[in-house]
Amino acid sequence: MAAPKAPANLPIEASFLAQLQQHVAAREIERGIACLRSHQDLITHLDPAQENASRLMAYLAIWMDIGFAGPPLREILNRFARSGKNGVTRSQLSVADYICLRMAEGMAAMAEEAMETAIGHFDFVLSLREELDERFFLAIVYFWKGRCLRRKGDYDEALIYTGKGCELALGLGHPRMAAVMRVLEGWIFFQLGKWKEAVRVSQEAEKVLGATDDYVTLGNIQSFYGRMARREGRFDKAIEFFESAIGYYDKRDPRHPNLARSLANMALAKRGIALQLQKRIDREVQRRRKTSPRAGSKQVSAGRDSRNPETGNHEARGYDPRGHDYRERLTRLRREALEHLEAAGAIYRQRPSHHGAGTVYLNAAYIHLDGGDFQRAEEEAASAYDVAEEKQDYILMGRARILQCMIENAKVEEEIGEGADPGSHARRAFEYSQEAVELAKHTQHHLLLANAQVWQGLTQCNSFFDNPEAARESYDLARASCGGNQPDHNMWQDLQTLGAKILRKGSVHPALKAWSQGAVGEKTFRQISEEFAEIVIPRVWEREGHKVSRVAARLSISPKKVRRILARVGRRKPRPR
Q1: pLDDT tens, residue by residue, 240-262
Q2: What's the Cα-to-Cα distance from 356 to each of 113, 185, 269, 572, rounded to whole Å?
Q3: What local confidence, expressed as pLDDT, does residue 348 receive?
Q4: I need a surface site. Which of 93, 118, 362, 529 has the fewest CB within 10 A?
Q5: What is the DSSP string of 454-517?
Q6: CA 96, 100, 101: angle at the middle one, nearest 5?
Q7: Is 100 among the domain residues?
Q8: Do 195 and 187 form a contact (C-beta atoms < 8 A)?
């Protein structure tokens, strides 16, 4: 595509490029965008034959990533032909100019969510870093590659490349530019389960950027705080942080994709409150059943088909425990969550994002599942998987398969649509859980893998399979996958549920069977003792009414060790590191 004919031969002044770099380094976003707008004709009619054209392409890529709404980056890149149709071929560019062009192409691929392609461009640039001799650009490329690796779930490598970008930015005397990169480091620490480090890094970055108008990055920090609060089960606080993030994004662009992401996260936070409310209703219903057996029998006789889609509870229809209208509040929370997701989806339709759209589908599926609408939940979960598969987004694909496993297990529990094949839903649930495990193994997202293993275990001990020994193996694998990472509120509860189901089945632990026959493998006595403690202490804890002090006294060990063992096996929440 040839460049539009320019009204005049507009030069690309070195001073203009220097201004663009200065505004990036200082995070002077409005000033940088104003500078670009004042050169709109130059950008619109950019000619590849002009001096500094490739360098301007690199700066345009940086600023379009920040938020400048100019001509589509891919459209301008197409002017740099691979043949001689434009009068200038890429082979005629200097090495430094060609590297700048590849840098811009990497950004364009990243914007299109083609992460592998983007990484290929960035690797090329980094392989010729001596030829480029431009540490500012190199810092940006390291940062961009870190972002791509994080999206792929390669967290260790993402941390390395982001750190290199940060070091270069600090070496250039650009602390604000480095702070933006540190926000990404915080996200990665968060995904690795290093919550204290994540908070520390994010707070330091917030202090550096607080006086700037880099509203997107400031919004990202608030969004991170919201994700932290949501994972800890502090849903009201999470909503406050997401609202704060939305306020920042709105200052930059009311249709910013990150604003859509915060809306989707806020929907999950409201779902969390709704789940807590539903449990309160369920507990009250159970209490009434015990105190009024005849009334309880009458409620049960209504059958499973009378399940209330608004509350997700058979007996709670129209019932407001303690005089409060919990049902109305539950309905409102779910309605608001779906409205947030609809608003997020509208933004993603204008600013296409497979990952964002997939997340909206996924979150909507959770809410429909909570309300007992299995068909809508299935449709939304399948849509989430389809858009994720298109971009080979293994993390989102894995999450979708876990949710599909949950839906099939719910059908097993509700005895829905079994027909001639009573095991169809159970087998489908197990297949989804196996796929989720394999997908998670393509990433370094240890908690995603642990969650897949938890649901594999819950499937193995459902009413159809009833295989507590296999479920215990999945439970142990999930604990091992968690390692030192702290699971989020919902996953921790699922892990507890799985552990409790295995205990209720009353099967003999396979390790105890093996030890009784002298089969210890390569384990030392110390390792066997630790594993034995992990088996015995949770059971004693159950018998002693979940009292750590009683367990410590009963077994003559320290309360600290009891807490450590219980946290390691998922029976108590570990304290954030």
Answers
A1: 999 999 999 999 999 999 999 99
A2: 11, 21, 17, 33
A3: 95
A4: 529
A5: HHHHHHHTSTTT--HHHHHHHHHHHHHHHTTPPP-HHHHHHHHHHHHHHHHHTPPPHHHHHHHT
A6: 115
A7: no
A8: no
Beta bridge partners of 313: 308
Cα 291 to the chain's mean position, in Å?
44
Rg (CA), the chain: 28
**Domain span at 549:** 524-577
CA dist., res. 460 & res. 454, Å (int): 10
Contact by Cβ (8 Å): 166, 201: no
Q: Is residue 537 part of a domain?
A: yes
Q: Give the pLDDT confidence of 53-71 residue by residue, as tens digits.
A: 999 999 999 999 999 988 8
Give the N- to C-terminal CA distance of the chain in Å, as an integer: 54
Question: Residue holding tokens 């997701």?
Answer: 341
Please report whether residue 186 resides in a domain: no
User: In one letter, which amino acid is 360?
Assistant: V
Q: What is the rounded distance in angstroms from the CA atom of residue 481 to the CA atom of residue 497? A: 17
Angle at 188 between CA 494 and CA 445, to 5 degrees: 40
**Coil vs helix vs strand at 434:** helix
CA distances from 209 to 15, 33, 62, 214, 314 (A): 26, 18, 18, 7, 51
Q: What angle do CA 49, 52, 57 make, to 5 degrees?
A: 90
Q: Which residue in 151, 56, 213 sits closest to 393, CA to CA?
A: 151
Instruction: Please list the alpha-helical segments (H only) found in 292-393.
Output: 293-300, 326-350, 354-370, 374-390
Structure tokens at 368: 């429909």
Number of domains in the chain: 1
Contacts of 545 (CB under 8 A, 6+ apart): none
Structure tokens at 5: 């004919």
Does 557 fall in a domain?
yes
C-beta separation of 1 from 75 below 8 A: yes
More confident residue, 466 or 205: 205
Quote the CA–CA distance of 250 and 520 in Å, as a whole number: 61
